Amino acid sequence: MPDGRPYHSPRRALTAAATRRDIIDAARRLFLERGFAKVTVAEIACEAGTAVKTVYASAGGRLDILRETVHRAAAHSGAQETVKRIRGTEDAVSAIALLAHRTRLSNEEHRESIAILYSALPVHEAAEALWDEGTSIYTSALREIASHLKGLGALKAGMTVERCADVLWFCFGLGAWRTLVDDCGWTWDQAEKELAAVATKMLLKELSTG
């Protein structure tokens, strides 16, 4: 006799998860190729080889897929691990070099997600909220790192934690990497080296050579 408990099929759950993954991957490909505004749910369904109603049931609409993309990138940004490692440094030059490397790795890994979000910003008002949500983790980590640099006593006279955090965002924020790598055609290695040098020059006291 049935006991009233809901039936759960592991195989069905795996199939549903695979369908959702295929839909999101298809949407990401189209967003990258055409830009967020020029992609319809019908086109996502066609690319994924499924029906429009399946897209909505499994992954939602375009904004839901964009939100999933941003949340996934933010969750795997490594921001707190970066803060933890930099807090273990004992000199500001090494701290900035480590920050340059860690933010480079994160921006390189999530380059496609960042590009998709940029393409959505001018055309969907909800994208701005996702931008704020996604970058808040980033900027909060930079403020913690700025506080560590201040504590090392190596910042220029008058350089506050808040101003230092702003300079770190200028040098290592999403726009810095995108400008040098995507717009100017620099390699990631070139960008990492140059941004570390710029941040060091802008933030730190001149080292004594005497």
Task: List the topology elements.
Layout: H1 10-34, H2 41-48, H3 52-58, H4 62-75, H5 79-87, H6 92-109, H7 111-120, H8 125-151, H9 161-172, H10 174-183, H11 188-203
Helix pairs in contact: 1-2, 2-3, 4-7, 4-8, 5-6, 5-8, 6-11, 8-9, 9-10, 9-11, 10-11
Any overview of this molecule?
The chain has 210 residues and is mainly alpha-helical. The protein has two domains: 12-60, Arc Repressor Mutant, subunit A (Orthogonal Bundle); 72-203, Tetracycline Repressor, domain 2 (Orthogonal Bundle), CATH 1.10.357. It has helices at 10-34, 41-48, 52-58, 62-75, 79-87, 92-109, 111-120, 125-151, 161-172, 174-183, 188-203. Helix 1 packs across helix 2 and helix 10 (174-183) packs across helix 11 (188-203). The longest helix has 27 residues, at 125-151. It is elongated and about 65 Å long. The mean pLDDT is 90.
List keywords for this structure.
single chain; 210 residues; mainly alpha; Arc Repressor Mutant, subunit A; Tetracycline Repressor, domain 2; 11 helices
